[in-house]
Write a structure and sequence with these properties.
about 20% strand, single chain, Luciferase, domain 3, GMP Synthetase, Chain A, domain 3, 8-stranded mixed beta sheet, about 30% helix, about 675 residues, Rossmann fold, binds adenosine-5'-monophosphate-propyl ester, 20 helices
C-alpha cells in the first residue's frame, strides 16, 4: 500500500483534552517562540534543572553551519555547569520522588522481575561511580559498555556521568570485531559487561565476546585494563525447555572483576563532578558510508534539555504514568528514551530484557497489561513481526491503559501503522511516528499527541526549535509541496557536536554537500498540507530492522573472503525487516559459487559485524554495472535486486550488456 496523504486520523478528544499541548494553535505559538526566541524558550525549560554555574543568557546559543565562514560548531548554554546524574537523581529526590519507582525491570523469564526507586538508583550510581574512580577513571575518560537490558546498564551510564567519564555503549548484538574497533577508536581502558543474557531460549555469552574483543584490541596495541562483569546469568531463571547451562564466564585475574564483589562495599556517597554544558556526555558509534563507524559525540547541557523536553511533549508524560520503550540501551533510542529523557522527567519506566516472542508471542502485550503501560514505544519491524500472529493474540490482554503509541527507526508502512492503531491503540491512542537519528540526539520531526491529525506513515511536523528544509539537487530550497534532501539550517540543543577525534569527517559528512545546512542523509516529501514524509536514506546506507549500516562496511567484509574479488551491496525491500541486504559478488577465477560459499559469506558478515547484518541474498554476478570511470552504479543494482526492469538511462555504463546478464543470473528464490 502506498502512503496516502488523504488518510487522516484525528486525535481522540478524551486524550487530547489532557495533553500538555492541547491544540494546533498552541503548538504553533510554542513552535514560533522556539524559533524566534530560542533563549527564552529553552531558558524557561532550563530553569527546571540545576545549574551549578548559572546560564549566561547572552551566550545561550552560538553556532556556525557554513564551512565557508569557518569551522562548524554548535554550543548551547556555554559556560553554565551542571551534572546530569545530579539532575536525573538528586534533583528528583529533592522534589519528593525518592520513593518513586524509576524502573520496573522485567527479565527474559517472566519469573524474573524487580524494581528500583530513585533513591536506590542514586545509591547504586554513587557506589559504581566510586568503583570507577578506584579504577582510576577520571573526567573525560571513555568507558566501554556492552550490556544486556539490565538495571546495571543504567547504573553504569549514570555512574559515568556522575564523575564526568564519557560512556560508549556498543549494542550487545555487535560482534567482537565491531566492539574492538569501537573500543580502540575511543581508547577505552575500562569495560563493563555481564556474563551472559538470555534472549528467549538462547544464551548470549557476552563475556566470551568481550574477551575476544579485548584480545583483538591487544593485538592492535590497545589494552583494556579493567573489565567489570555483572553475574547476571546466575540470577536468571532458566527458560522453559532448558534444563541446565554449561557456561562459566572466564575471568582473568587482576583485569576482570565481578560486580557483586566490588560494588556493594563501595560508598553510596559520591559528589557529582560539575561539568561544563559543552563537556562530552557520551559517544555512540553509528555506521558511516565509508564503512568505518563514526563516534557521534553528544554534550551535557543541550542534550539534557532536549532529551527531557522531547520526552515530555512527544509522549505526553504525566506524573504517575508508566512508560515503556522497547529499544535496546545500546542504540540512541535506548540512551535518550530509556535512560535520559524519562529520568529527567522523574518518570517510571519499564525495562525489558527479552524478546517479543518468549515465552509466547504475546509477551509484549502481557507486559503492557502487567505494568498498565500508558506509553509504548517500539520499532516498525517489531510491529510487522507481531502482526503476523494475528489479532486474536492481542485480544487476550487488557491494553486499555495505553494512551500514546510510538514508532521509531525507519519509515512505518501504512499497513503496520493501521494495525498498530486499530489493534494496539483501540483506535483511541495517538501514534507518534518519531523521525530522528543518533546524530540528532532526540526526536526532530514527529506528530504531537492530542494535537497532530495523524497520517499513517508521515513523521508530520518539526519539534520545537527544529526547522526542516527540503533542498533540490542544486541545493535550492523547495517551498511548499515537493520532495528533496532533508536538511536543517540551525541547531536544536540535542544535535551532535562532533565525531570523536575526527572533526574533519564531521564537517565532511554532514555539512559539505549543502553549505550552510546540516544534511541528514535522508530524503523527504512535503505534502499539500505541509506534512513531512521521510522517504529514507539517499546515501549508501541501509536500514535493516531499524539497524543502520553502510553498504561499504558489508562489502569490505565480503571481499575479505578469498573467493570474492568484488562485492556491491544494496538494500532490497523486505516485508518484516523493512530492508534486507542483497549482495552482488564476483568470484575469483578458480573459486566455485555454491551453498558452502554462501554460508561462509553469511557467517563472515555475522562474525565481523553482527547477526543482524546477515545478508538475505547473495547473487553470483559475472560483472557489475560500472561507469567508464569505474564507479559502480548502485541505482541499477537496486533495480535488479527488486526485479524492476524499468532501469532508466544506462548510457553511461561501460558495458550495458551486464544489466541483462544480471537479470538472468538472479538467484531463483528471489525472482
Ligand atoms: O533514515 C532515517 C531512519 O533511521 C535513520 C537514523 O538511524 P539511527 O541513527 O540508527 O537512529 C535510529 C533511531 C532514531 C534516519 O536517518 N529513521 C529513523 N526514524 C525514522 C526514520 N525514517 C523514517 N521515519 C522515522 N520515524
Amino acid at each position: 500500500m502506498m502512503p496516502s496523504q488523504k488518510l487522516v486520523f484525528l486525535p481522540d478528544p478524551d486524550i487530547a483534552r489532557s495533553c500538555y499541548v492541547s491544540d494546533n494553535a498552541q503548538y504553533k505559538q510554542m513552535y514560533q517562540k522556539s524559533i524566534e526566541n530560542p533563549s527564552e524558550f529553552w531558558g524557561e525549560i532550563a530553569d527546571n534543572f540545576y545549574w551549578k554555574r548559572p546560564i549566561d543568557f547572552d551566550n545561550f546559543n552560538r553556532f556556525n553551519f557554513d564551512f565557508r565562514k569557518g569551522p562548524i560548531f554548535t554550543k548551547w548554554l556555554d559556560g553554565a555547569t551542571t551534572n546530569i546524574s545530579y539532575n536525573l537523581l538528586d534533583r528528583n529526590i529533592r522534589n519528593g520522588n525518592g520513593k518513586k519507582i524509576a524502573f520496573f525491570w522485567e527479565g527474559n523469564d517472566p519469573r524474573n522481575s524487580k524494581h528500583i526507586t530513585y533513591a536506590e538508583l542514586l545509591s547504586e550510581v554513587c557506589r559504581f561511580a566510586n568503583v570507577l574512580k578506584s579504577r582510576n577513571v577520571q573526567k573525560g575518560d571513555r568507558v566501554a559498555i556492552y550490556m544486556p537490558m539490565i538495571l546495571e546498564a543504567v547504573i553504569t551510564m549514570l555512574a559515568c556521568t556522575r564523575i564526568g567519564a564519557v560512556h560508549s555503549l556498543v549494542f550487545a548484538g555487535f560482534s567482537a570485531d565491531s566492539f574492538a574497533e569501537r573500543i580502540t577508536d575511543c581508547q577505552a581502558r575500562v569495560m563493563v559487561t555481564a556474563d551472559a543474557t538470555w534472549r528467549g531460549q538462547k544464551l548470549i555469552k557476552l563475556k566470551n565476546i568481550c574477551d575476544e574483543s579485548m584480545d583483538i584490541c591487544q593485538k592492535k596495541g590497545h589494552t583494556v585494563d579493567t573489565c567489570i562483569v555483572v553475574a547476571h546469568m546466575q540470577r536468571s531463571e532458566l527458560p522453559t525447555g532448558v534444563s541446565r547451562v554449561q557456561y562459566t564466564a572466564p575471568m582473568l585475574n587482576c583485569r576482570d572483576f565481578w560486580w557483586h564483589e566490588i560494588v556493594p562495599g563501595a560508598s553510596a556517597n559520591c559528589p557529582p563532578e560539575w561539568m561544563q554544558a559543552e563537556d562530552p556526555l557520551f559517544l555512540l558509534y553509528t555506521s558511516g558510508s565509508t564503512g568505518k563507524p563514526k563516534g557521534v559525540l553528544h554534550t551535557t547541557g543541550g542534550y539534557l534539555l532536549y532529551a527531557a523536553t522531547t520526552f515530555k511533549f512527544v509522549f505526553d508524560y504525566k506524573p504517575g504514568d508508566i512508560y515503556w520503550c522497547t529499544a535496546d540501551i545500546g542504540w540512541i533510542t535506548g540512551h535518550t528514551y530509556v535512560v535520559y529523557g524519562p529520568l529527567a522527567n522523574a518518570a517510571t519506566s519499564v525495562i525489558y530484557e527479552g524478546t517479543p516472542f518468549y515465552p509466547t508471542n504475546s509477551r509484549y502485550w502481557e507486559i503492557v497489561e502487567k505494568y498498565k503501560v500508558n506509553q509504548f514505544y517500539t520499532a516498525p519491524t517489531a510491529i510487522r513481526t507481531l502482526m503476523k500472529f494475528g489479532e486474536d493474540i492481542v485480544k487476550k490482554n487488557n491494553l486499555t491503559s495505553l494512551r500514546i503509541l510510538g514508532s521509531v527507526g525507519e519509515p512505518i508502512n501504512p499497513e503496520a501503522w493501521l494495525w498498530y492503531y486499530k489493534n494496539i491503540g483501540r483506535e483511541k491512542c495517538s501514534i507518534v511516528d518519531t523521525y530522528w537519528q543518533t546524530e540528532t540526539g532526540g526526536h526532530i520531526i514527529t506528530p504531537l499527541p492530542g494535537v497532530t491529525a495523524m497520517k499513517p506513515g508521515a513523521a508530520s511536523s518539526p519539534f520545537f526549535g527544529v526547522q526542516p528544509i527540503l533542498l533540490d539537487d542544486n541545493g535550492k530550497e523547495i517551498e511548499g509541496e515537493g520532495e528533496g534532501y532533508l536538511v536543517f539550517s540551525r541547531p536544536w540543543p540535542g544535535i551532535m557536536r562532533t565525531l570523536f577525534n575526527n572533526h574533519d569527517r564531521y564537517e565532511e559528512t554532514y555539512f559539505k554537500k549543502f553549505p550552510g545546512y546540516y544534511f541528514s542523509g535522508d530524503g523527504a516529501r512535503r505534502d499539500s498540507d505541509g506534512y513531512l514524509w521521510v522517504t529514507g536514506r539517499v546515501d549508501d546506507m541501509l536500514n535493516v530492522s531499524g539497524h543502520l549500516m553502510s553498504t561499504a562496511e558489508v562489502e569490505s567484509v565480503l571481499t575479505e573472503h578469498s573467493s570474492v574479488t568484488e562485492a556491491a551491496v544494496v538494500a532490497k525491500p523486505h516485508p518484516i525487516k523493512g530492508e534486507c541486504l542483497y549482495c552482488f559478488i564476483t568470484i575469483a577465477e578458480n573459486a566455485v559459487f555454491n551453498d558452502q560459499l554462501q554460508t561462509e559469506l553469511k557467517q563472515l558478515v555475522r562474525e565481523r559485524i553482527g547477526p543482524f547484518a546477515q545478508p538475505d541474498v547473495i547473487h553470483n554476478a559475472p560483472g557489475l554495472p560500472k561507469t567508464r570511470s569505474g564507479k559502480i552504479m548502485r541505482r541499477i543494482l537496486r533495480k535488479i535486486a527488486q526485479d524492476d526492469h524499468d532501469i532508466g538511462d544506462i548510457s553511461t555504463l561501460a558495458d550495458s550488456g551486464i544489466v541483462d546478464v544480471l537479470f538472468k543470473t538472479k538467484p531463483n528464490t528471489q525472482r
